[in-house]
Amino acid sequence: MTTKIPSRIARGSAELAILVLLAEQPLYGFEIAKRIEERTEGALRFNLASLYPMLYELEKRGWLKARWEVNRAGRDRRYYSLTAAGRKKLAPLRREWRFFFRALDRLAGVTRA
Amino acid sequence: MRDWQSFVRERLDLSALDPAQQNEITAEMAAHIEDLCEDRQAHGLCGSDAARIAGDEVPNWNRLSRLICRSKRAEPPMNDRTRQLWLPGFASLAGSNLLLMVLSCASLDVRMVQERSLTWFPSLDLVAAYAPWVAAQPLAGALAAWLSHRAGGSRPVKLCAALFPSIVMLACWGLVIPASAMFEGVWAARHPAYMLLGAFVWVAPAAMGLLFGCLPFLSSQKNAGVPAESR
């Protein structure tokens, strides 16, 4: 059984989740949300209200860029891809989260729970 | 098929953004809901259920509108401290000193002032330039406090911005004027009481005037344009 991660925790991880996915290939908003849900087996789920403000924020920071393209179904979709700055940000972000999980584990034994 | 663009446009308030951005965001949101609806239908939900679920994607449209506008808007070119303190302070300083310069040029003969200002008692023409300048200080104080108030400055910041000309004048009398007088060998530098009197005359009454001008703006507090949650 998969437990859904509470939104207050999910919100903090959204940045990493989005950057990790877009490092693989350009995706549009719905695809990003769907892939996050699939890859985390439903534990992390971003809806329209939580996803787009984050995408726009990352775009403003210059970590993502977006352009309209036609998807496989022949519809116009706004595809997001990582910029060089975003790609550069990914490694330190991964390190930060690893550090955070280890620290949390030492404190609360989360992996043994 | 439902018109999702109209659905989004009716709910999302993007009036703070330019029309091109509004259209793009609306189209993107509508596309997301459209995809979601089709995905739900592919998983066996009927059309109306899928539409209801897609509509439920946003629990609070007002909040989403605010978040999107905040994310899309360019960073303000100036930070809060610049808008609330430095800009009003320098506007007040410029106003105050410009007035002093105009009054000096209009009413004083420089050579006469140089001769007469070395006495303990001010001459009438010095008073003629000085008195209107002091009298006009409330305007400079009010200008600074109003600018700071408009930018959401706190009470101490508004006060600081309003008193900025006097703070600068105090720095001049405390540091710059004694140092330059000593270097130039002016006799006044050897008479601290004379320097203190000069500092008092040029700082205290002007500060009182500035304070008087900013008083109406000290009582009320105004939030800056940025939503509280973004600070």
Architecture overview:
- The complex is a heterodimer of chains A (113) and B (231).
- Chain A is globular.
- In chain A, a hairpin with a 5-residue loop joins strand 2 and strand 3.
- Chain A has one domain: Arc Repressor Mutant, subunit A, CATH 1.10.10.
- Chain A is of the alpha+beta class and 113 residues long.
- Chain A has helices at 7-24, 29-39, 48-61, 84-108; strands spanning 27-28, 64-70, 76-82.
- Chain A is built from four helices and three strands; from the N terminus they run H-E-H-H-E-E-H.
- Chain A has a three-stranded antiparallel sheet.
- Chain B has 231 residues and is an all-alpha fold.
- Chain B folds into two domains: 4-72, no CATH class; 80-218, no CATH class.
- Chain B has ten helices and no strands.
- The two termini of chain B are 42 Å apart.
- In chain B, 28% of the residues are buried.
Give a short synopsis of this structure.
Chain A has 113 residues and is an alpha+beta fold. Chain A contains four helices and three strands. The longest helix of chain A has 25 residues, at 84-108.
